[in-house]
């Protein structure tokens, strides 16, 4: 079993290479071993491309060794046709005799069927190696399929005295961000944006900051921008409504004349519990992870509904004296680190 754990751990390391590019597919890692030597490795390609098992098998130079090899994978090989053919069929076609799996796939089209097919073909299958580690690795995919909602990360920056924005009198007349943290912390935020499928902000944040919500200080794929705009008050020339990245506006106003071509609109009842409706909308749009970046009212909506999985809270070295108070949250401190003059605390419920 220790040997199995060694190679599943390597699969997890490989799978991390797909962070931010495979969604809504899981970021699977795969290793192929012959006589305790790795002869092939792979991870899931960007969405629409080959899965980890395909890439690992393709990387094996001497394909004749596959008939005497063991394939390790973080998640059950797929059984169904999607953008690509079933990986279970490929494993059977190459007569790989042993497969070791970290975790069962909760997807309704898989759910044990891939394992069943492998076993029927005569393959020896081991399930549940480093299962908890694989669950943590696949937390976004599992949240989507097991809880029918995305994995939700709350993020904000606050001052030493607990504010996330100054009073309006301290701001420029031109809507633009007011920075609390240093440039290194801001770069970390752009790294996070590249890792998650979507980013969500409320109306007031957009009206005051006019953010683009895209990547600038990191290389990767722009997140889908989710904007709450109950009455469609955001001016049409604001950055979140441009075509640089996909935007979904959640609104209560169904007036088509106020909607912009190229922007996707979803209708919600802002008088009912909004966080639950947002989760339903994101699930419907196949979004399996989201960073909620503000403002306080939007963040507090998710906190009060107990719909969050992580909170990432920066604290800068400046003070405001007064302004917009930061959200109120309680949770377990998972990590606490320094980024030069800033501190970063990671909470879980």
UniProtKB/TrEMBL annotation:
SUPFAM superfamilies: Cytidine deaminase-like, Dihydrofolate reductase-like. Pathway: Cofactor biosynthesis; riboflavin biosynthesis; 5-amino-6-(D-ribitylamino)uracil from GTP: step 3/4; Cofactor biosynthesis; riboflavin biosynthesis; 5-amino-6-(D-ribitylamino)uracil from GTP: step 2/4. Pfam families: dCMP_cyt_deam_1, RibD_C. NADP(+) binds at residues 157, 179, 205, 209. Binds 1 zinc ion. Its EC number is 3.5.4.26, 1.1.1.193. The active site is at 53 (proton donor). Substrate binds at residues 193, 213, 216, 293. Keywords: Hydrolase, Metal-binding, Multifunctional enzyme, NADP, Oxidoreductase, Riboflavin biosynthesis, Zinc. Its cofactor is Zn(2+). Zn(2+) binds at residues 51, 78, 87. Residues 2-126 form the CMP/dCMP-type deaminase domain. It catalyses: 5-amino-6-(5-phospho-D-ribitylamino)uracil + NADP(+) = 5-amino-6-(5-phospho-D-ribosylamino)uracil + NADPH + H(+); 2,5-diamino-6-hydroxy-4-(5-phosphoribosylamino)-pyrimidine + H2O + H(+) = 5-amino-6-(5-phospho-D-ribosylamino)uracil + NH4(+). One of its GO terms (molecular function) is zinc ion binding. Converts 2,5-diamino-6-(ribosylamino)-4(3h)-pyrimidinone 5'-phosphate into 5-amino-6-(ribosylamino)-2,4(1h,3h)-pyrimidinedione 5'-phosphate. In the C-terminal section; belongs to the HTP reductase family. This is Riboflavin biosynthesis protein RibD. It comes from Flagellimonas allohymeniacidonis.
